[in-house]
Amino acid sequence: MSDDFQVSENPNGRVTATRLIGCAVEASDGPIGQVDVTSEEVAPDHIVIDTGGALLSKKVLLPLWVIADVDETNRTVHVPRTKDRVKAAPRFDRDLRVTDPSYRARIDEHYLDEPRAL
Q1: If the chain, 118 residues long, is cut into consecutive pieces of 10 residues, what is the mean pLDDT of each piece?
Q2: Which of 40, 84, 93, 107 is deepest in the core (most CB within 10 A)?
Q3: What distance in Å separates the CA atoms of residue 47 and residue 80, rounded to the nearest whole number?
Q4: What is this structure's pTM?
């Protein structure tokens, strides 16, 4: 894995949503899907993960700060969350990403290691 692409400490560094399109996404317990082309719509701080095949496809947002690192050679994004956690994220909604100011905050909250008390 390339240290050049660590994004945990610098989410707005060299890794960009556009650059990750088409990369496989590997959760802590196995493959989860791939970075979808709609990531261009949510850049620069999130990407869209397509978590399934044609019939069971679900697209979810993933904040760049969640990514542990990127293996550029194998075009793989490594995410230190389980497949179930990623799949349980709210579905990517093109309308909400623009019209609901709390949408990305809810997405970010979902990926926290320990949920915040309300």
Answers
A1: 41 71 96 92 86 80 92 94 92 74 83 60
A2: 107
A3: 15
A4: 0.79
